[in-house]
Amino acid sequence: MTLLDFARGPAMQIAIIIFVAGILWRLVGVWALRQKKDLSEARQTGAWVGGLKGLFVHAWPYKPFVPKVGAQYIIGYIIHLGLFIVLIFGTPHMLFFADIVGFTWWTLPGGVITAVAVITTLALFVALIKRLVNPVQRLISNFDDYATWFVTTAPFVTGLITNMNMWPDYETGLAIHLLSVWLLLIYFPFGKLMHSFWFVVSRYTTGSRFARRGGMA
Amino acid sequence: MSLKDIPVKLDPGPGPGSPETTGLAVALLREIADHLLAVSQGGERQVVELTNLPLSEGDLQLLEAKLGRGEVEARINAAGPTEVFETAFPGVWWVRYLGEGDRMITQQLEIGTVPVILEAHEEDIQASARRFPSMFDELDTNHH
Amino acid sequence: MKEHDLTLGEELRRQGISRRSFLKFCAGVASSMAIPAAMVPAMADSLAQARRQPAIMMAYQECTGCLESLTRSFAPTLENLIFNFISLDFQHALQAAAGDQAVEAIKTSMKENWGKYLLLVDGSIPLNDDGIYSVSHGQSHLDSLRELGEGAAAIVSIGTCASFGGIGAASPNPTGAVGVDQIITDKPILNVPGCPPMPEVMTGVLTSFLAFGALPEVDSLKRPRAFFGDTIHDRCYRRTFYDQGKFADSFDDEGARNGWCLYKLGCKGPITHNACATLKFNEGVSWPIQSGHGCLGCSEPNFWDKEGFYKPLSAGQWGSAEGIAAAAAAGVALGAVSAVMSRRNQNKISGGK
Predict the structure, then answer these.
(1) Nearest CA of chain C to the CA of A128: how many Å?
(2) What is the rounded distance in angstroms from the CA atom of residue B89 to the CA atom of residue B15?
(3) Domain membership flag for residue A150
(4) Per the structure, how many domains does chain B have?
(5) Among C175, C274, C287, which Cα is nearest to C221's?
């Protein structure tokens, strides 16, 4: 069995099993906890509207904070949008998903995907440098932050090397790229990458609780 | 529905592609200029292999147009045809090695006094020198 | 004078083949192997000094497709010169002799040329049950290869079967078929895989063996780099369409008719190392991708068992849906257990309130 066969077969199956089990473990584990009762009387009805508003209000910092954290938000958006574009509109990636969902969709030319991936990778490195340079950020960073950065960046770097065919051996390179993605999937449920599920939950919860108490979310 | 209703399109393949030039032709011309200068100063014969370069049809046309045709044209029959012509620049030769059905095997630009393939080889000359006198035996037998 | 005592140059002159033909042959080989054109006269000189190379070609568990392909490079004119370079002492499908006489030819050649002959092999070799699944003239091919391999100067495995086991070794591989280098480990071995292999590669390999006295530089799978150094994808004339994102979605859509990239239809070009994208088959007539079909990856090990020729390269192998369902159930259960434990802990801290 070559490394590529391993990456496409057993490694992928194991990674997906850990990913699915881990995500459900975390989601059920948190949701099945005893919910905190809000004993106060609702100051206004329709707390859920506030919850939904909360999803969007927190998508951009409160105005007075913009000069301080705006750049961080922009870098974050570049990373997330880049990740989304490369993942969904890169032809090889689309075909990977098409194999599961059974239909194909429109994709972007390879050159565009490469450019987006390069920009995203640069943004990831800027984010890391910011984290290392800023004393406060460095102080509050733990292993999880660096591990999360690593497993996110590795697929981009290996993917770009594969796409530009800079490996000594393409087949092994492709296998390394796949394995780096499986590493991301395996780490996903157990670290800060879970924010991709929790951010919706936490923003809604915060928004709806504030709304119930008469706040603006 | 007849067979004619099925649209058939032949893929010409990698051969005669774009008529655009890639800039490679100009780079090649500069290389040839360097070689020619070296040879003119008594340097060794130089060969530029064209088949392995990603030249477009436009590139080849540009090369042919710029190099032009000179005084010599030759066709060699040895293991299939080989076409040789001198370009408008004496000392720069275009050599086309062809196979069966004039299929291109490889083509080269040779910079030197005469392409190697045109020269009679030393050992071939020796062999023919040995063979030549037998002609007189025949002449003698016919005479008697 | 015996045939083997003549140099190739003398031999060719005796046959009335001029040095020009010889030079032309070398120019063709040099071009296909990316040997600098200025080296051609030196290569021809060295080749002229070489002795005629004795060679024995053995057909083991094979389909003769390789031989069909190779004889195409021996078509009249230029390429048939290669036949003058080797003394093919045994090839069961090409020679007139059969039975005991043919076997005698092998024995004689082995004895006369011990340690000097080139062994050419096509077909895989079964290992199971002492190799009894593939036998010629009462001798298993396993024994035959061991015997012939011992006296060979070098071995060339022709085709994917002799190189990697090929179709004979396809799952579940009932005969335990393997390639030559799984059995012989103490000889220089060169693999020329492909189903069929490219005839020009054989011409190039044999010529460079005679001219330079050694097998050419090889990659990690023992394939000559000059021909197997690049992937099909890198040399494909449809590569620009891949870069532009123009793909054929089925074998009869607009994209297929316009000759766009076949990646979505399962082309294995990006992971396949071979020279057909540039040399093409049947004397340059065409090759699979030009005829509208994706690359099968025939020059790579186990190409037969790679989950379908029409499945895109990036698709994974999913295994069972049950596995994922079980994982989901396990995740839910784990979550429920940890929630119960947390609740119990909460009760303990709050004193049951």
Answers:
(1) 30
(2) 28
(3) yes
(4) 1
(5) C274
C184 and C69 in a single domain? The answer is: yes
Asked if residue A56 is part of any domain, the answer here is no
The residue written with tokens 């369902």 in the block is C325
Q: Which chains touch C (3 or more CB pairs under 8 A)?
A: A, B
Q: Do chains B and A touch (3 or more CB pairs under 8 A)?
A: no
Beta-bridge partner residues of B106: B97
Q: Is 50 exceeded by the pLDDT of residue B139?
A: yes
Contact B123 C27 (CB under 8 A): no
Token pair 């951010």 in the structure block, residue: A199
**In this prediction, what percent of chain C has a pLDDT beyond 90?**
34
Number of structural domains in chain C: 2
Q: Are residues C274 and C223 in the same domain?
A: no
Element of type H or E holding C192? strand C189-192
Instruction: Show the DSSP H helices in chain A as ranges.
Output: 3-6, 12-31, 47-57, 66-89, 91-101, 110-133, 135-140, 143-163, 170-187, 195-212
How far is C162 from chain A, CA to nearest CA, in Å? Answer: 18
Q: What is the CATH number of the domain that holds C188?
A: 3.40.50.700
In the predicted model, what is the mean pLDDT of residues A16-31? 91
**Closest Cα in chain A to C267:** A92
Q: Identify the CATH number of the domain in which residue B122 sits.
A: 3.30.1370.140
pLDDT at C73: 59
> Does residue B102 sit within a domain?
yes
**Segments forming the whole domain that contains residue A132:** 65-212
Number of B/C CB contacts below 8 angstroms equals 96
pLDDT at residue C157 is higher than 80: yes
Bridge partners, C158 (sequence order) = C122, C192
Is C30 within a domain? no
Q: Tell me if B113 is assigned to some domain.
A: yes
Place of tokens 């040995």: B130
The range of the structural domain enclosing residue C259 comes to 232-305
What is d(CA C152, CA C157) in angstroms, rounded to the nearest whole number? Answer: 13
| C246 lies in the same domain as C144 | no
Average pLDDT value for residue range C264-277: 90
Task: Say whether both C148 and C278 belong to one domain.
Answer: no
Rounded CA-CA distance C126/C178 in Å is: 6
pLDDT band at residue A69 under the 50/70/90 scheme = confident
Domain-located, residue B143 = no
Nearest CA distance, C203 vs chain B (angstrom): 14
User: ∠ at Cα B107 (B102, B109), nearest 5°?
Assistant: 140
